[in-house]
Amino acid sequence: MQLFRHTADLPAALRGGAVALGNFDGVHRGHRAVIEQAQAAARALGVPAGVVTFEPHPRSLFRPNDPPFRLTPLRIKARLVEAMGLDFLLALHFDRPFSQLSADTFVRQVLVEGLGVRHVVAGHDFVFGHDRGGDIGFLREAGGWHGFKVTEVHPVSAADGTIYSSTRVRQHLQAGDVAAAQAILGHAWEIEGRVEHGDKRGRTIGFPTANLLLGDILRPRFGVYAVEAGVDQGPETVWHKGVANLGSRPTVNGTDERLEVHLFDFADDLYGKHLRVRLLHFLRGEQKFAGLDALKAQIALDSEQARQLLA
Fold it and tell me: Residue 262's CB: how many other CB atoms inside 10 A?
């Protein structure tokens, strides 16, 4: 799959395709239904299949003071889309000038002149353009003017009637219910980043950790999780089991929010490496201990519980 940030970069071979259009934060099962419809349309037409999304998420521009909410930064989103077998991902740069484009101008400049689309697929509630001036009905009407077809995908739900949505994923993660979040996503939720130097306190108590800063991603419930951590080794990711604390580390009067990951039976140096961490089981909430000895004893218990859950 090829990744682009501007329509001008798109080669002629990828123009004239079928595209899924949306934010796709989380790339959950509902999003996958939209993307799969675009893939089906592309196969029927014998044209490339792509995803068109927006980076950063428009909410980051319009509501910059909101708490972090992103489920999938671009790197994770691209990896999930690529795994579905798409030909390209176009992550349009969403800034103030772009937000001022009218719905009609967006269709003309991006979809028609930029992509030359043959077919567009979007969710029933997708809106676009200045002041949310375009919706699926407008898109269908514009398709009639410009010669592309439009497919509307209605809400997708589980057998119990639960609608797959990014909002529900966020709610489950903030409650510490990673299993419910994963059921909607269709994959484990990940935090990833470059391993930073910490205060190295973990190694002094026998539990060295790899430290990741959280950036602008959603804050799940603070506490301890059983995890799998993927270490990039060349083109492959090698996975290791472990336990992680997510939060501000009140026992040592921590001042920043971070993910501290202890990998079981692992001794290599991870500083500066890229780490992917899947939150698989919530063990307990974050708490302040009387001292390092009490913390060490609890980490030992957490580690044993995590080993059992991950066995």
Answer: 22
Tell whether the model's pLDDT for residue 205 goes beyond 70. Answer: no
The packing angle between helices 166-174 and 178-185, to 10°, is 160
Q: Give me Rg for the CA atoms of the chain.
A: 22
| Residue 281 binned pLDDT confidence (cut-offs 50, 70, 90) | very high
Is 64 a residue whose pLDDT tops 80? yes
What's the CA angle centered on 146, arms 98 and 84, to 5 degrees?
65
HSE (CB half, 13 Å, CA atoms) of 60?
18
Q: How far is residue 24's CA from residue 103's CA, in Å, rounded to a whole number?
A: 19
E strand spans, the chain: 2-4, 18-21, 49-55, 88-93, 119-123, 149-153, 190-194, 210-213, 223-233, 236-247, 258-263, 274-285
53 near 35, Cβ under 8 Å?
A: no
Examine the pLDDT at 250 and tell me if it is beyond 80: no
Residue 137 has pLDDT above 60, yes or no: yes
User: Mind listing the domains of the chain with CATH numbers?
Assistant: 2-153 (3.40.50.620), 166-310 (2.40.30.30)
Maximal C-alpha separation, the chain: 71
CA 11 to chain centre: 27
Mean pLDDT score of the chain, rounded to an integer? 92
In this predicted structure, the answer to whether residue 206 has a pLDDT above a threshold of 70 is: no
